[in-house]
Amino acid sequence: MASLPWPCSLVFYLVATATVSSALSLPIPSLRFQLGPWRYAHATFYGDESASETMGGACGYGNLFSTGYGTATAALSSTLFKDGFACGTCYQIRCRGSPHCYGSFPIITVTGTNLCPPNWAQPSDNGGWCNPPRRHFDLSKPAFMQIAYWRAGIVPVMYRRVPCVRKGGIRFLLQGNEYWLLAFVMNVGGEGDVGSMWVKGSNTDWMRMSRNWGASFQAFSRLVGQSLSFKITSYTTRKTIIATDVAPSTWYLGMTYEADVNFA
């Protein structure tokens, strides 16, 4: 029988040590949202100074004043909107390369709350500003007026994704009926977006909810009379947090309930 140049125990030690060292050297994905790179896009505005036309929208946030988003909002072109998964995401925007930009080139931060749909009747460089693959922000007029002279109509901009800074916890507006729960998810911090969601009644196990539209998720189950907990996973980072007993057993449809947790 051939003899080993080293004792078996030493060989095992060296192999095990190398394996552990290799594993420790592998990059570990970060669950913390990182600033995105600056990119080029264009911006227009819709509505007037009251921003009344920006209320509601494709994300389902309703009255943007009462839900905390105010006038610092944007309708996103479909390339940015990502079929609704970009609802709640935050962006820094600054005007660049136009005589209509304000001289100090101020930076604003806005939240994506709506979809700017394609206009296939117009060319992408003349009216069809939100046609794919264009990256475009249709701002509220008050937001647009912070970066450029409003009569410009459209200006080139630079933008980047940034963490959303929110006060308080994630909020859930409950709609539906006795056998169908529809939850609109708002005030999401950090990444700002929601990729998937689960609900748990005080008498049930966790149930995966399906996305209805925008920032709303649904469960077809009778949850009346049970306190509700939610588990939310970010679309961007896949980070998951659990909001326990957000709504008491006496919850009502049409009411908004706030969790004591949020993404950082």
UniProtKB/TrEMBL annotation:
Q: Classify the source by domain of life.
A: Eukaryota
Q: Which UniProt keywords apply?
A: Cell wall, Cell wall biogenesis/degradation, Membrane, Secreted, Signal
Q: What is its main location?
A: secreted
Bilayer topology reads: Peripheral membrane protein
One biological process term from GO is: plant-type cell wall organization
Q: Look up keyword Phosphoprotein and say if it applies.
A: no
Give residue ranges for domain Expansin-like CBD. 179-259
What is the native source organism of this protein? Ensete ventricosum (Abyssinian banana)
Similarity comment text for this entry: Belongs to the expansin family. Expansin A subfamily.
Give start-end of the signal peptide: 1-23
Q: Please report the name of this protein according to its UniProt entry.
A: Expansin
Q: Does the keyword Membrane apply?
A: yes
PROSITE patterns given in the database record = EXPANSIN_CBD, EXPANSIN_EG45
Tell me, what does this protein do in biology? Answer: Causes loosening and extension of plant cell walls by disrupting non-covalent bonding between cellulose microfibrils and matrix glucans. No enzymatic activity has been found.
Q: Name one GO cellular component term.
A: membrane
Q: Which residues does the UniProt record annotate as the domain Expansin-like EG45?
A: 56-169
Q: Where in the cell is it found?
A: Secreted, Cell wall; Membrane
A Pfam family reported for this protein in Swiss-Prot or TrEMBL: DPBB_1
